[in-house]
Amino acid sequence: MKLLVDTDAFCKLAVAGVLEDAVRLLGAELSDCGRLPALPHMLRRGRLRKKYGTEACDYLLPLAESLRPILETPGVWLDRLTAIEAIDPGEAQLFDVAAEHDMVVLTGDKRALLVAKDVAGFPTALAGRIVVLEAILLALCDSIGVNELRRRVQPLLALDLVASICFSGAVSDPRVGLQSYFESVAAGVAPLVLWAPPPSKGEK
């Protein structure tokens, strides 16, 4: 595995039909990606089915099952991270595996990052290898084009506040808002350094 995808990022990017594009931007294919073992179960029943709806979850389930579940091989970070109430155990497991095996993590859980940044050694262990949704959406604006991305993310607008603001019909260039949100997140999680999208190539 090269890339780990958390549940929130998987669902939102897959609903928008850009998961494979996002993964390729990070130098991987879907076959290189790992996910939490519980993801398929969560899509069959529970909070994801309530949030995304039956039709969306039925669509996402085979895609989730095509990704490899990460194995439970606890490293030095798992106990340190799971001891923090604000960090979901699944997210802690992803961070632990990524830190131990030099992998990239695509995550939608900024709440976890805001507290993990204060864990001694964590910013160094995962420097530049945590990708937040704002960053990958910015990169996708250039790779597939603003208009194509705007078309694809329509199902996401009711599920993600940042997407709903940045891709509103009244916004001419979503990159401006995405860049602002990304810079805000990056500042908030310092000294942890996030993966940053390449400089924009301009209108596309």
Overview of this structure, please?
This protein is 54% helix and 7% strand. The chain is α/β, with parallel strands linked by helices and 204 residues long. The chain has a 5-stranded parallel beta sheet with strand order 3-2-1-4-5, with helices on both faces. Helix 1 crosses helix 5 and helix 6 packs antiparallel against helix 7. The longest helix has 15 residues. The model has no long low-confidence stretch (mean pLDDT 93).
Kindly state the percentage of residues in helix. Answer: 40-55%
Largest sheet: 5 strands, parallel
Rg measurement, Å: 16 Å
| Spatial order of the strands forming the largest sheet | 3-2-1-4-5
Domain count, please report it: 1
- Any idea what the shape is? globular
Give start-end ranges of low-pLDDT stretches. Answer: none
Number of DSSP helical runs: 13
Mean pLDDT: 93
Oligomer: single chain
Distance between the termini: 32 Å
- N to C succession of SSEs: EHHEHHHEHHEHHEHHHH
Strand content: 5-15%
The structure class reads alpha/beta
Q: How many strand units? A: 5
